Amino acid sequence: MSLSDDLQPGALRRAFGRFPSGIAALCSLVDGAPQGIVASSFTVGVSMEPPLVMFAVQNTSRTWPIVRRSERIGVSILGTAHDGVCRQIASKTGDRFAGLRLHTTDGGAILLEEAALWLECSVEQEVPAGDHHVVLLRVHQHATHEDAHEPLIFHASGFKKLEQPAFV
After folding, report:
1. What is the pLDDT of residues 41-53, one digit of tens each?
2. In what order do the strands lie in the sheet with 158-161?
3. Are 27 and 35 contacting, i.e. CB atoms less than 8 angstroms apart?
4. Which of 21, 152, 4, 131 is nearest to 78 (CA)?
5. In Å, how far are 85, 95, 102 from 99, measured between CA atoms?
6. pTM of the entire structure?
7. CA distance 19 to 16
8. Distance between CA 128 and CA 27 in Å, rounded?
9. Strands 33-39 and 24-30
């Protein structure tokens, strides 16, 4: 097997798609209305002291400049019940939060019910990275819901569920 030097976006997207990831919805209440983006580039455990997580956002995003103005941003790691939610929140038209069960914190962070993990964060730093920005978020609060919801996985351009081990 030889390595490919095809670095065109389509080829890279296929290659990067071989790495499974969770999907994060980053949402907040802005001027009284819910706003949000989704990211499959979300990473936890960047730092424990201070508690930092990160994700990458496209420079062309029209929603991130709105969300980042918030005092607090809710990060919901989407659960298996959210397979349509990712596309709904990422949609460029319509009410992107219609029918979703939401929890809003005192700081204006919006969290989705049935998520595998909730984090309430604030923007710590943004770093230019080519056609994206890497955003470091400081974690202020978290909830795992006693492991009641398994995470939804993004792999090979599709949504998957973790396979449960079969115990004999």
Report:
1. 999 999 999 999 9
2. 21-22, 152-155, 158-161
3. yes
4. 152
5. 10, 9, 9
6. 0.90
7. 6
8. 21
9. antiparallel
